[in-house]
Amino acid sequence: MTALTVEVVHVFTDPDGRFGNPLGIVDGRLVPPADRQRLAADLGYSETVYVDDAATGTLRIYSATGEMPFAGHPTVGAAAWLHSTGQPVDTLHVPAGPIPVTRSDDLFSVRADTTWGSTWEWHQLASPEAVLAADPTTYDAGHTYLWSWQDEPNAVIRARAFAPAMGVVEDEATGSAVTQLTAQLARNLHIIQGTGSHLYTTHEPPTHATVGGHVRIGTQRTGRL
Fold this sequence. Notes:
The protein is an alpha+beta fold and about 220 residues long. It has four helices and 15 strands. It is globular, with a radius of gyration of 16 Å.
């Protein structure tokens, strides 16, 4: 077996750098396409990014069950990681299309079509407490997004996402889903998802939204082919 380095970043942390959705980042030149899904499944993250060309920001994204043409937390995480390695890009390139990247202080955002990403079953619950008390096993085996207003005047939402169809019982922070929710509600949002991750969106009608957040850079692990 061949060992390779996997960079691990946490995407959509809270302002103090806590929580966030872990993301594996791998040099795509070292992993043949036929091996990418297996490695992503072995690593166990909701998504793993393969950087095929750092200079142009060309990426491929895999979950444990297959390739994804677009996903939010991998693109935000990859943009922040590329910046941290001295290779900042203004645009990422994924199979779904070009993804513009912006940076404001230490917050990275990507802009995407709100029709991209997985199809979710949406459930607005009565309170944040109801969202936190929900049992993932009582929902179907596809993609389920629960949310409630935490502070409606200030557009703050408490949310959780279940995605067993992708091999993920609960996804800590789901960027493409919140762009879809932003389009549904037609307003900028601040979403607190999972154990305490923070995502920030802007509504850009008629077809787009941005999603961004803080990214904690810092650890490595070994993957094997």
